[in-house]
Amino acid sequence: MNTTLTQTKEFLFKNTWVLWLIIFLAIVSFSYSIRTGLLATGLIANGLLIGHVVLIGVLVLKKRTPPKYLLLPILGILIITISIYLTLDNKIILYCSIPLCIPSLVAGLGILKK
User: Based on CB atoms within 10 Å of each CB, which residue in 24, 32, 49, 102 is the most buried?
Assistant: First the structure.
C-alpha cells in the first residue's frame, strides 16, 4: 500500500498536468454536466498529447529515444479522438485541441535545446 501511494505521488509530481486535468474535470462537471466535463478534459488531454507526440517524434528521428515510447501517446490520442468524435454532434470542435498543443511544444523545445 505504501509503495503504491509513493508511486502515485511521484507520478503526480512528474506529471502535474494530470492533476490539473482532474481538478478541471471536477470543476466543469459540477458546473455544467459530466458529459461537458469529459469532453472539455478530453480536448485538453488530446492537445497535450499531440504536443508530446511531436516532441517524441523529433527525439526518435534524432535517434535519442527508441520508437516504442511513441506508441502510448499515439494510442491515447486515438482513443480520446474517437470517443470525442462519436460523442460530439459538431465535429469542428475537435480542431480546438490543436492550439492546446502549443504549451507542451514550447516546454519541450526548451528541454530539447539543452
Answer: 49
> Is the pTM higher than 0.85?
no
For a pLDDT cut of 70, what percent of the chain falls above it? 95
Q: What is the C-alpha separation between 1 and 7, in angstroms, rounded? A: 10
Closest-CA residue to 49 (of 88, 15, 7): 15
CA distance 65 to 52: 13
Give CA–CA dist 22/29, Å, rounded: 10
d(C-alpha 45, C-alpha 76), whole Å: 9
**Contact status, residue 77 vs residue 64, Cβ threshold 8 Å:** no
The number of angstroms, rounded, from the C-alpha of 31 to the middle of its chain's C-alpha atoms is: 22
Please say whether the beta carbons of 43 and 100 come within 8 A. yes
